[in-house]
Amino acid sequence: MTNPTDRNAALAARDLKHIWHPCTQMHDHETIPLLPIVRGEGAWLIDAEGRRYLDGISSWWTNLFGHANPRIAAALAAQAQTLEHVIFAGFTHPPAIELAEELVRITPPGLDKVFFADNGSAAIEVALKMSFHYWLNQGHGGKTRFIALTGSYHGETLGALSVSDVALYRKTYAPLLLTPFLAPSPDAWEGEPGETPAQVATRRLEELRALLERHAHETCAVIVEPLVQCAGGMRMYHPDYLAGLRRLCDEYAVHFIADEIAVGFGRTGTMFACEQAGVSPDFMCLSKGLTGGTLPLSAVLTTQHVYEAFYAEYAAGKAFLHSHSYTGNPLACSAALATLAIFRDEPVLERNRALAAHLARRLEPLREHPHVAEVRQTGMIAAVELVADKATRRPFAAEDRRGLRVYLHGLQHGALLRPLGNVVYFMPPYVASASELDLLVEVATAGIERAVAD
């Protein structure tokens, strides 16, 4: 560990005495330094010793417009002096009303009702419960199952984990979970030799059709992350799959749940990924970038048709009795309104497309690397697939932890990169400059060389 007089080390020692960190094997911190961050500035994080780290992953994909963004901070400060929170059952407040109106305005057509929750997993829980309860209210109580994609990830609460297919998260808790039907992912990485991403999507839609043919009568909904399966390894697929999915859901009378928690708010090149297929889901789950990375908040948007299935006298038992203590929190809603105002007032998507094109150019040389099987990109999400053997795509052994080596190299050279296994990915804040993207790629490239050296 570092010198005990070091401010970082002193804060880390205090942290490790009591705090249990998420998604972490705490034993690792016997050898891997825990970094105390005391300040953020644009795309940068600054530790207790004043060292700077370029945030290449938007702090778990949440930060859109930079740390300590002055416009969002001002909105939070103003709201904190007015109303910090109020029960959202039987009461309302202007920030929630205005945010719901704005979300309905900017999301795909037909999503006219907004249900607020407080994080992404909670939004998934809401959508799953609402879909099941809708069918129950309609007299179809036999619909109790869900269809998810292989390699999917939708969160780590029990309901969200039930429709996820990443063994790292699911395996331990399998006895506690619902069992979904799994449809083969349209991930272009899994295509046959010479097969285009659109052809992969078409083939996978036929397999989904066969699954629905057998199980639509017991299926509430199909849930997908549109265009990019993020925590599953940044797996990317063609928009045709979403268009075909919408048609199949209509044909077989099941709901389409779009998990846009990570891919929404401009991340894929359009405001929402579903736009690239010209489709509206029955449920759209939003979080992460919704508040610009400042406060927890999520929203589930659905249709007037779904809403009406719950609208009845209380005694009828049709009400959706789901709640969170901090539902519709005014501070979070104000942060979200400030975030959406930046989209409205500035050419964010145009700027993102230029940055994405620059990132693509800088990553292009890695395609020839002997341990890189693929470089893929959708908008402001790019990923580099590391393999032991390029010709056969044979992966590195998981216990080698090559991605961890890239992560540690990044920290040593002023960049926060947090690979998913052997997938090195880039999901920077939208305020990152071209030169900052250059730095990320340079540090990642050197880290990859170091990670595969033996």
Can you describe what's shown?
Helix content is 36%, strand content 15%. The protein has 454 residues and is an alpha/beta fold. Helix 13 crosses helix 14 (434-451). It has 14 helices and 16 strands. The model has no long low-confidence stretch (mean pLDDT 96). It folds into two domains: 35-68 and 348-451, Aspartate Aminotransferase, domain 1 (Alpha-Beta Complex), CATH 3.90.1150; 73-345, Aspartate Aminotransferase, domain 2 (3-Layer(aba) Sandwich), CATH 3.40.640.10. Strands 4-12-11-10-7-5-6 form a seven-stranded mixed β-sheet, sandwiched between helices. A four-stranded mixed β-sheet has the order 1-2-3-15.
Strand content: 15-25%
Portion in helices: 25-40%
Radius of gyration, whole Å:
22 Å
How many β strands by DSSP? 16
Structure characteristics:
454 residues; Aspartate Aminotransferase, domain 1; Aspartate Aminotransferase, domain 2; 2 domains; 36% helix
SSE diagram, text form:
Blueprint: H1 7-18, E1 37-41, E2 44-47, E3 52-55, H2 58-61, H3 70-80, H4 94-106, E4 113-117, H5 120-137, E5 145-149, H6 158-162, H7 167-170, E6 181-183, H8 197-215, E7 219-224, E8 228-229, E9 235-236, H9 240-252, E10 255-259, E11 283-286, E12 298-302, H10 304-308, H11 330-345, H12 348-363, E13 372-378, E14 381-386, H13 402-412, E15 415-416, E16 423-426, H14 434-451
Parallel strand pairs: 3-15, 5-6, 5-7, 7-10, 10-11
Antiparallel strand pairs: 1-2, 2-3, 4-12, 8-9, 11-12, 13-14, 14-16
Helix pairs in contact: 3-11, 4-11, 8-9, 12-14, 13-14
